[in-house]
Amino acid sequence: MSLLELIGIAWQGIVDNKMRSILTVTGIVIGIAAVIILLAIGKGAEAETNKQIQALGSNLIYIQPGAASTSSISAGQGSAATLTLDDCKAIQEICPSVDDAVPVYTSQFQVQYSGLNTSTRITATEPAFAEVRNFHAASGRFISQADLDSYSRVCVLGDTVVENIFGEEAHPVGKSVLIRGELFQVVGVMEHKGVNGFQDNDDIVIVPLSTGYNCLFGTNASTGKSVKNILVSVKNADEVTPAEFQITNVLRLRHHIVPPMGDDFTLRTQADLLETAQSVNKVFTMLLGATAGISLLVGGIGIMNIMLVSVSERTREIGIRKAIGARYSDILSQFVIEAIVLSISGGAVGIVLGLVGSDLIGHFSGWTTVVTPFSVVLSFIVSIAIGLFFGIYPARSAARLDPIVALRAD
Question: What is the pTM of this model?
Fold first, then answer.
C-alpha cells in the first residue's frame, strides 16, 4: 500500500472514534503546553535576572572587606572594617584600567516623617555613585560635590521609602525627614529599580558620605573612615581582568599583605554575578522542564493505552484486512501513523495553547515570560517522538494478530 493510502486509512480510524481520539490528544496538548509555559517562565526568570544585573551598571567590580572573627568564629564576608576611604582614592589614582571608584557605607536606620516611620537602608556615598551604579534621580536631583564638601544634611529617597512614609501621591522633594533623630532635607527621588534577589533596590535613602560620617555613622578609631564596599567602574569590558589584578596589588600593598597571608578583601565582577545567577536559573528551568516532562510521559502512556484498546476493539477489522492481503508492514504502518497523527495534532494544539498561555501569564501575573524557538521546536519533535515510541508496541500487537483468530473475534 502507498503512504497516502495508509494515511487515509489511519485518518478514517481516528475520525470513526472521535471521543477516543480527543481524549488521546488532550494528554499531549496539556503536556506540550506545560513544557512551553514552564520553560517560558524559567527563561523569563533568567532574562529578568540578567537585566537586573546589567542595570547595576556596566563593567563593574565590587570590592568587599574581609570577614571579622570572634573566638575563631567568622562573622561572614564583609563584616570586617578592612576597607577605607583612602583605599578607594588610591584605586582611583593608581589603577590605569579604572575609570572611577566610589566608596559606599551602608547601615539600617529609622526614617521618620509626620508620624510615619520606616526602617530602611541608609547609603552614604559620593556624587559619582549615580553614574557608576547607573542609578539616577527621577525627580529633583542627586547629591552634589557641594553637598559633600559642605557636609550638607540632604538626602535622596528611593520609591519604596517615599511610598512608606509619604504615600503614593506625595511630592517629597523639598520636605524634611528625620534619620536617626537628625533632620535631612529631601532633594530628590530615585528612579524605580525594582527587586534584585531578596533586596529591594528602592528601599534606600542616599546621603553624602561626609555627612554620614559626621552625624550618622562616626569613624573607626583604628581604621578611620572605613567603608562597607567600593564600586569600581572599568573603562571597558576588556579591562576588567587587568583592573582586578591592579586593584588586588594596590590593596595588598596598602594592607601590608604578603604570602602566605590571605587577602582581607574580596573582588567580584558582574560576570561572577551573572554566572551565579545563571547556574541557579538553569537548575530552576530544569526542574520546571522535568515537571512538564512528566506531563508528556503521562500523555504518551495515554496514547499507548488507548491504542491498545483500539487494537482490541478493531480485531475483526484487522483480521479482514489481513485476509484480503494486507501485510505485516501495512498493519504496523497504519497504527503507527494513527499514533503519530494524534501526537502531531496534539503537539500543534499544545504549541498554540502554550504560546497563548505564556502570554496570558506574563500579562496578568506581571512575570517575565520568554518563549524561545528552541522550546517550540523541541515540543514539536517530542510530540512526534511520543507518537513513534508509544505507538509502536500497540502497532506490533495489531500486526502480529493471527487473521483466523482475528476473524473469529466478536
Answer: 0.62
